[in-house]
Design a protein that fits this description.
The structure is a single chain. This protein has about 80 residues and is mainly α. It is about 45% helix and about 10% strand. The longest helix is centred in the middle third of the chain and has 11 residues. About 10% of the residues are buried.
Length: about 80
């Protein structure tokens, strides 16, 4: 399983720059850069809330779960 950050796609749809998002959210430009480029493994929930508010979207528009290519054990009620 892999969680992908689709912030760049959403910002592209809205023609929003990283600098503009940083100004509107109050989030450091370096943090926006890391999230935008999927360079982070942890995302602050308050930051996600601010980003969704400014971009007028839901969290599912930014975070997407993609199944891994490897076969993983699943938890089944047996």
């Amino acid at each position: 399983m892999m969680i992908r950050i689709k912030l760049s796609a959403r910002m592209g749809e809205l023609r929003c720059t990283q600098a503009a998002l940083s100004r509107k959210t109050g989030i450091r430009p370096a943090t926006i850069y890391e999230v935008y480029n999927e360079l982070t493994s942890r995302v602050n929930l308050e930051h996600l809330d601010k980003i969704c508010e400014v971009l007028n979207c839901d969290i599912c528009d930014i975070l997407v779960r993609e199944p891994s290519k490897k076969s993983e054990k699943s938890y089944k009620n047996e």
